[in-house]
């Protein structure tokens, strides 16, 4: 069984930055894709960014050039660096490790 725990969310002003972390424990395989997703009230959960075990990344058009996904396989950690944040980035951000999901961390961007 795999456990996924996100941290690093909070309240930030527009234009600011946050770094989300994803800690993974349990039956871990470094060959698993990781991803960050977000969900806002009244909206469907959407993919923000994904990263393969080899480090290949993919981003939603809305965050390209502002967000950076990374992972540290040795430490079983994933990260999402979010810069130039906008109010529309406000959401609960979830980390996915393979088929396992965390509980989410709230990100609120004030205008």
Task: Give a structural overview.
There is one protein chain. With 111 residues, this protein is mainly β. The chain contains no helices and eleven strands. The chain has strands spanning 2-7, 10-13, 18-26, 34-39, 46-51, 57-59, 67-72, 77-82, 91-97, 100-101, 105-110. A hairpin with a 5-residue loop joins strand 5 (46-51) and strand 6 (57-59). It starts with a strand and ends with a strand.
How would you state the average pLDDT, rounded?
95
Instruction: Round the Cα radius of gyration to an integer and report it.
Output: 13 Å
Largest sheet: 7 strands, mixed
Oligomer: single chain
Low-confidence stretches: none
Count of DSSP strands: 11
Give helix % range: under 10%
SS strand fraction: over 45%
Q: Could you spell the SSE succession in H and E letters?
A: EEEEEEEEEEE
Counted by DSSP, the helix tally is 0
Q: What overall form do the CA principal axes indicate?
A: globular
Instruction: Note the gap between the termini.
Output: 40 Å
Q: What structural class is derived from the secondary structure elements?
A: mainly beta
Question: TL;DR?
Answer:
This protein has no helices and eleven strands.
Brief descriptors of the model:
111 residues, mainly beta, seven-stranded mixed β-sheet, four-stranded antiparallel β-sheet
């Amino acid at each position: 069984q795999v456990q996924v725990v996100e941290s690093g969310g909070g309240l930030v002003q527009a234009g600011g930055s946050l770094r989300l972390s994803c800690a993974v424990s349990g039956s871990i395989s470094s060959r698993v894709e990781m991803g960050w997703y977000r969900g806002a009230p009244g909206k469907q959960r959407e993919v923000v960014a994904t990263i393969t075990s080899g480090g290949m990344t993919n981003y939603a058009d809305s965050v390209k050039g502002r967000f950076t996904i990374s992972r540290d396989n040795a430490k079983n950690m994933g990260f999402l660096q979010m810069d130039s944040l906008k109010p529309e980035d406000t959401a609960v951000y979830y980390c996915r490790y393979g088929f396992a999901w965390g509980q989410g961390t709230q990100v609120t961007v004030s205008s």
